[in-house]
């Protein structure tokens, strides 16, 4: 009886197995089709997903002590050079006293002579000093060699030479013959972020590549030697500086990388005549070349920032802030209620802010516009105080300051804001990949313990 039951049970199992097999065979085409669809979607997503761009490391130039320009030197040189124009000298002193620069900013050697008489040779010497020292530091920090570089981008707005600055770098470091090189000029203080955007686009096309971005402004041939007030202001603000940044799309280097690139937002107001002409390189009535800063500059910068953050906000702000902004907009535009425009709290989207250190007024205006605290703008103010306005490289001195203070932690987001002639406002957002240890070398390494410092509204000597 038990044997019979066992045989019946086995027959039933075989019967069910055959039934399942036939059922599975009938569903096989649908199963294969479904699996192929899933694989196709996955492959399509993988192929169309933008490559992640990593920031491996960066280096900032530290001028030698012989280039330092303390207050007394700046005032004395100004007094001698503008001896025949006392009103111009008084104006320059007034600006300098309120500029927010400290005693350790630097100018190239050619501008220390009285009167200064810069030439092309002097400009090349400054270029080599700034760029080569910075790139040397970058290679040392990353452990890469010149032959590892696939893309090279150099931005310098006012000094244009032939061969180009990018060719100067290729020649110095004997880079490969197939390196893709670019030289950006005339794009103002926000050119560094434009270079990052160009590097991003190139790295998304060229797989397994490394890119170096070099940002600087060569001061030697661009110091104004005339007496026009609107053109004397840059003399009080601009100082030596430069930065070299190494970007990569190699997944093998992602653990070594400090940051990942999240967003680049560029806005250009050049179609508007006032915006286009608010920062202009030109000659005065005596033929002296310089950069004119229009009195509407701050207003134009503020309007450019509003346009830029209206785009950036949609990408980075939490839903709660977007909702508050929309409600406020409806109340003002549709319900016609007399309410102030709601300014989103960008502190909920970012942990660190790097505002172009163009001058005290620039930092003050953005701090007010975005409701930022003094701590939020500390890196920008200290960069302006210690290094002056180093043009497009100032944003990297600011990130360097945050790192040197040991404040950059894994997962935190950094917002770089740059302004430039034309008129442009550009934003770049980075995400920190790991806790950044306090660097033992670099522009801030041996002086960071002195900062922050109190900066008076007016420096009287």
Automatic annotation (TrEMBL):
Which Pfam families does the UniProt entry name for this protein?
A: ACP_syn_III_C, FAE1_CUT1_RppA
Enzymatic reactions: a very-long-chain acyl-CoA + malonyl-CoA + H(+) = a very-long-chain 3-oxoacyl-CoA + CO2 + CoA
Pathway(s) per entry:
Lipid metabolism; fatty acid biosynthesis
- Source species, domain of life: Eukaryota
Q: What sequence ranges are listed for the domain Beta-ketoacyl-[acyl-carrier-protein] synthase III C-terminal?
A: 350-431
The signal peptide stretch is none
Q: Which InterPro entries match?
A: 3-ktacl-CoA_syn, ACP_syn_III_C, FAE1_typ3_polyketide_synth, Thiolase-like
BP term (GO), one: fatty acid biosynthetic process
Protein localization: Membrane
The UniProt record lists the EC number as 2.3.1.-
- Record's GO cellular component terms: membrane
Spans traversing the lipid bilayer = 27-47
GO MF term set: fatty acid elongase activity
Subcellular location, principal:
membrane
Q: Which SUPFAM superfamilies match?
A: Thiolase-like
Which key words tag this protein in UniProt? Acyltransferase, Membrane, Transferase, Transmembrane, Transmembrane helix
Which residue ranges does the record assign to the FAE domain?
Answer: 46-333
Q: Which family does it belong to?
A: Belongs to the thiolase-like superfamily. Chalcone/stilbene synthases family.
**PANTHER family, sorted:** 3-KETOACYL-COA SYNTHASE (PTHR31561)
Question: What name does the UniProt record give this protein?
Answer: 3-ketoacyl-CoA synthase
Q: Which organism is it from?
A: Artemisia annua (Sweet wormwood)
